[in-house]
Design a protein that fits this description.
binds zinc ion, MIP18-like, three-stranded mixed beta sheet, PaaD-like, GMP Synthetase, Chain A, domain 3, alpha/beta, 28% helix, Phenylacetate-CoA oxygenase subunit PaaJ, Fe-S_Maturation_MIP18
Length: 160
């Protein structure tokens, strides 16, 4: 009961770089445990290592847990197994697209399996006629793409 409430609180925290995605959408939130004493442990697996956003995320988790009545909270970071973009939930992918960011191509995607490279669909018009403009978009976690069909630039959430 307490654990469900704690998970709910932690799951409200959003990614500081992509505010439409919660850490639950991202698959960053791995586990929430509440001991008999009320002490809570939130386990997260960071997305991109060295992402300065992780520190912000940790602070926000502590804040969200405190507002839900959990004062004794520890955030534990687990690096193995490493986070991959495949952990992103379907709801998260849809939110990314609606936000104008192309969601990462699934590692198992047939196009990638066939041709051995990413083909990124434009989040605006859905065309796959896109090109990479720069390895780095608005943040290091994203790459900048441009759609040749509608000429709109867009961010692509890089695959890991
Ligand atoms: Zn387009």
């Amino acid at each position: 009961m307490k654990t469900a409430k704690a998970w709910e609180a932690a799951a409200t925290v959003c990614d500081p770089e992509i505010p439409v995605l919660t850490i639950e959408d991202l698959g960053v939130l791995r586990d929430v445990q509440v001991a008999e004493s009320g002490a809570a442990v939130v386990t997260i697996t960071p997305t991109y290592s060295g992402c300065p956003a992780m520190l912000v995320m940790e602070t926000e988790i502590l804040g969200a847990m405190r507002s839900a009545g959990f004062d004794d909270v520890r955030v534990e970071t687990v690096l193995s197994p490493a986070w991959t973009t495949d952990w992103l939930s379907d709801a998260g992918r849809e939110k990314l697209r609606a936000y104008g960011i192309a969601p990462p191509v699934r590692a198992s995607s047939s196009r990638q399996a066939l041709f051995g490279k990413d083909s990124v669909d434009c989040p605006q018009c859905g065309s796959c006629n896109t090109e990479r403009v720069s390895e780095f978009g608005s943040t290091a976690c994203k790459a900048l793409y441009r759609c040749k069909a509608c000429a709109e630039p867009f961010d692509y959430f890089k695959c890991l």
